[in-house]
Design a protein that fits this description.
The chain is an all-alpha fold and 113 residues long. Helices cover 66% and strands 0% of the residues. It is elongated. The relative contact order is 0.21.
């Protein structure tokens, strides 16, 4: 019974250290006021750049999550997360920037918003 309990605890700890999928990461709250001083064209360019950045980060995070799942399956250790491949914080910040930029563009009544 103790072995089962210890085994369950070890598995829970290892799985909690695994990288999350990009779509399950929530955006960090960033105030739109950080972007309201920018012009619509500047905001549009920044938004395009940040969406590309998010796409790159999401691919890296997806790879890290797959690596963690594989590592846990093979040796019981989330290899990607331990190696620093987890980009959760960067993805949350990027999503927050995108939300803030879009809100600022909406407030400024930029084309398409």
């Amino acid at each position: 019974m103790k072995i089962l309990l210890i085994g369950t605890a070890v598995v829970a700890v290892l799985l909690s250290g695994c990288a999350r999928r990009p779509d399950s990461i929530s955006a960090t709250s960033i105030p739109m006021e950080a972007y309201t001083g920018d012009s619509c064209s500047s905001l549009n360019q920044q938004l395009t750049n940040e969406k590309e950045n998010l796409s790159t980060l999401s691919k890296q995070q997806h790879d890290a999550a797959n690596g963690d799942a594989f590592g846990v399956f093979l040796i019981g250790v989330p290899i990607g997360s331990l190696a620093g491949a987890d980009k959760e914080g960067e993805i949350a910040t990027s999503k927050g920037k995108i939300n803030a930029m879009e809100a600022a563009m909406h407030k400024k009544k930029c084309a398409g918003f």
